Amino acid sequence: MLKTISPLISPDLLKVLAEMGHGDEIIFSDAHFPAHSMGPQVIRADGLLVSDLLQAIIPLFELDSYAPPLVMMAAVEGDALDPDVEARYRQALSLQAPCPDITRIDRYAFYERAQKAFAIVITGERAKYGNILLKKGVTP
Predict the structure, then answer these.
(1) Which positions are annotated as binding substrate (predicted)?
(2) Residue 51: which H helix or E strand, with range?
């Protein structure tokens, strides 16, 4: 345990957050995401919601200010998004500063970004389209 560090942040996740450089990306995925076949390092956060982890890490994590720092998967044609998912994520991310816009990209473009991510954190999130990519910025 460390002071001021949320107990939701595992030692493995804390290490990854510290190792990331500006421009690196991390995925916080729902429980259904095919993370292990993507290639990057996978961290398990079973039983935790993405929104809870976002709230825990945002005091430690500077979002990129030069490129869109938040990306989520767009709904597949014929499917619908649950607006509550994005609302929960925005609320969690806005606890430190106003939440930047969230960019939506199609499923396969999101998978391509995930394959190049620094790490993927698999959570217990069950919401459909519950994956979010965060791009790290320069820490002031």
Answers:
(1) 30, 107, 129-131
(2) helix 50-57
